[in-house]
Design brief:
60 residues; two-stranded antiparallel ribbon; 1 helix; rod-shaped
């Protein structure tokens, strides 16, 4: 069984975890409506994805 020879210092441990942070979400402007939406996601206001209607939107 592999056992570390020395204790990992807090500085080295935290440097290893420096890449674990979450990045900010990216948004793109929709070409049709001009609203911001996530890339590669369905536009929930119009129900469009890649120029196709994929969701039926109920109008209140």
């Amino acid at each position: 069984m592999a056992v570390p020879k020395r204790k990992t210092s807090p500085s080295r441990r935290n440097m290893r975890r420096s890449h674990h942070a979450l990045g900010a979400n990216s948004f793109v402007e929709d070409k049709e409506t001009g609203e911001m939406r996530r890339p590669h996601h369905v536009d929930l206001k119009t129900g469009m994805y890649k120029g196709r209607q994929v969701l039926d939107i109920k109008e209140d």
